[in-house]
């Protein structure tokens, strides 16, 4: 890890008095912020000429309930917004009104839940920070929150997704692992209980996934789509309205290339 990260790894005592492997927030005499000083808008009709220095080099972004994260080409992560539970990952609970760099390199994906954040590193490890009241961080503990990113999966991950109060990880073998709130069956473990550590719910064959408010959507390698969880607004795509499902159901048989989930709807 030390070879690929400019950020420091340390064994600090965690919130429950134990020890954990933490990814420290970017340290410096003052937080380093992205510049927002250069704005050029040629015209509304020529939107392609819109340039904004804040977004230079950005490859991915993630939006939680009240916080945002961006991932840049150099593997750095920047965050802003509400930080009540440490979801920005900067080592504090101070709200930010500008993007502050919290990780300096080696990140390949980011996801933002209601009040928690997930990052995926180049080595396939997964790290989480923020609120943990329902086990959404997946660290196996019942600490209320984490203000620094803590490692929850050591290797093998290829994608991450964050629902309202739960987290999903897709591994390189096509298996799906989940943790957090399961009140509508959204975890896919055939229950409506919560987990404080990642459990495997699909053994393989998954190509992509999406986490909605309280429902989950999977895209399998054969192009089929499967959904689970809350369905009070028809977000599972089953053609019926009912409260929830605790078993994955196939809703599209083939030819799907990608899936996405909002708070109360799904797309493919």
Could you explain the architecture of this structure?
By secondary structure, the protein is an all-beta fold. The chain folds into two domains: about 1-155, Methylamine Dehydrogenase, Chain H, CATH 2.130.10; about 155-268, Methylamine Dehydrogenase, Chain H (7 Propeller). The protein is about 0% helix and about 45% strand. The protein contains no helices and 22 strands. It has strands at about 10-15, 20-25, 40, 50, 60-65, 65-70, 75-80, 95-105, 105-110, 115-120, 125-130, 145-155, 155-160, 165-170, 175-180, 195-200, 205-210, 215-220, 225-230, 245-250, 260, 265. The strands form six sheets. Strands 1-2-12-11-10-9 form a six-stranded antiparallel beta sheet, with no helix packed on it. Strands 5-6-7-8 form a four-stranded antiparallel beta sheet, with no helix packed on it. A four-stranded antiparallel beta sheet has the order 13-14-15-16, with no helix packed on it.
